[in-house]
Structures are given as structure tokens and as C-alpha cells.
Amino acid sequence: MKMLIYLFVLVLPLACSQNKSISDTESYNESYEIQEIAEESEFPTFQNNTTKDTDYKTDQKLIKESYLEFETKDLDQTYAQITRFITENKGYIQDDTASKNYNRITRSLIIRVPNTHFQTTIDSISQSVNYFDTKRMSSKDVTEEFIDIEARLKAKKALEVRYLKLLSKANTVIEMLEIEKELSNIREDIEATQGRLKYLSHKVSLSTIRIVFYKTIVESKVTESYGSKMWLAIKSGFNSLSLFMLGVLQLWPFIIVIGISSFFFKRWLHKKSKK
């Protein structure tokens, strides 16, 4: 009996110590996991760079743009032709602006066409133009940026899943609040990354063509002959004389008063000279 009591006294402290050690280990592991995920969220680019070349493969992404400027004799006909080319190539007019100054009428168009029909549209318009004042085409390769954004997005979504799993294991309110704060930051990053990816995808899928075509206005005064100018000068002088005579007629009361006054003044001077 004494032997059993002695063994119970020795085994009980050991069992309690073992349970406490296991509990401390689980708490340490959970804390370490939160810290590890937080560190990964602060430095996501390192992981992306290591997996980008192997996990992401995509076609070349090009943003194509063009600027065309030329003169035309018929604005309406040129606009109708361009509209037909756009329809044939499945594009649309994003902006249409008309303006006029002292010697020119201008029409400006911003056109969006599918990337695959970009060159076809340019060639169709070029066939109907004799001479371009400006013809410029550019192409920007955004493949690397596209792949990098996709990799970041994938890493952020994976990080979000890990934080959600960790949230389900949280035991205290403080832990839940810390995890939810990190989840909020991650979701903001995901939305911003998705927005940038959507913008690039739209710019790549639809190319931009800016077209400015104009018609020069010839003023009638430039074509007038010298004889016509002399006749206009004579007519202008006659009109001026007519206006002067009309102005004089409007002053007839003053003319009568001045005439009567002059008559009596001369008469008075004549009588005074006789005296």
C-alpha cells in the first residue's frame, strides 16, 4: 500500500507538467502561425517572383495606339467612310468632336477597335487618304506587368484563405480583431489589384485610334479682283455722302435759326456803319 501511494505521488506531478507543456506548445504554435502569415503579407513580392516564371504563362500583351491627321475636301463623305470601316472591324466611336476657326473646319474622333483588327482598320483608312499630315503608331508591351499582377492576385487570395482558416480557430476577441484587420487590408489589396488587371485587359483587348481630319475654308475676299474692290470703294463713298446729307437735313431747324440770326446781324452792322 505504501508503495502505491509513493508511485501516485511521483506520477501525478509528471502528468500535470506534461499537460501544461502540451497546452503551451499549442498556444506557441498558433501565435507563431499568425506571425508567419503576417510576415508573408508584408513581403508578398518575394513569393511571387519565385513562382512567376513557372506558374504563369500568357500570350504577349500589347497596348496599341495610333494618331492620324489629314486634310479632306468633303467632311461628310470622309466621316461616312471612317464609320463604315469601324463597323466592318467591330469597333465603335468613343468620342466625336467638331470645331471651326477662321479658315478650317475640323472633326476629331477617338475610335476603339479590337486588337486583332487594329492594323486592318489603319490600312482601310489609309487607302482613302492621299497624304497624312501626321501618321503615328505605337505599341507598348505590358506582358511582364500583366504576369506580375496575376501572380500578386493569386498570392493575395491564397493569403486571404489562410487568414480565414486562422480566424475560425481564434479563441479570444483580441485575436479575432487582429485577424479581421489583416483580412480587411488584404481584401483592399485584392480589389486594387483586380482593378488594375481589368484596366490593362481592357486596354489590351481594345486598341485606340485618334483621327483628326479637316477642311480648309477659302475666304471670298481673297478671290476678289481689283476692279471689284474699286467698285466697292465707290459704293462705300456714295453711302457715306448719303449719310452726311441725311445728317444735314436732320439739322434744318438750326440752319434756319442761324440764317435769320445772320440776316439781322448784317443789317445791324450796316445801320451802324451809316451812323
Overall description:
By secondary structure, the chain is an alpha+beta fold. It has helices at residues 2-42, 44-55, 75-88, 118-127, 143-168, 173-205, 226-249, 252-274; strands at 62-71, 92-100, 104-114, 132-141, 206-216. Strands 2-3-5-1-4 form a 5-stranded mixed sheet. Helix 1 (2-42) packs antiparallel against helix 5 (143-168) and helix 2 crosses helix 5 (143-168). The longest helix is centred in the first third of the chain and has 41 residues, at 2-42. 11% of the residues are buried. Mean pLDDT is 78; it is low at 1-32 and 39-56.
Give short descriptive properties of this protein.
275 residues, alpha+beta, five-stranded mixed sheet
Q: What is the helix/strand order?
A: HHEHEEHEHHEHH
Q: How much of the sequence is in beta strands?
A: 15-25%
Q: Count the E strands.
A: 5
Cα radius of gyration in angstroms: 46 Å
Structural class: alpha+beta
> Portion of residues in helices?
55-70%
Q: Mean pLDDT score, rounded?
A: 78
Biggest sheet statistics: 5 strands, mixed
Which regions have little confidence, pLDDT < 50, spanning 5+ residues? 1-32, 39-56
Can you tell me the overall shape? elongated
Largest sheet: spatial strand order: 2-3-5-1-4
Q: What is the helix tally?
A: 8
Distance between the termini: 181 Å
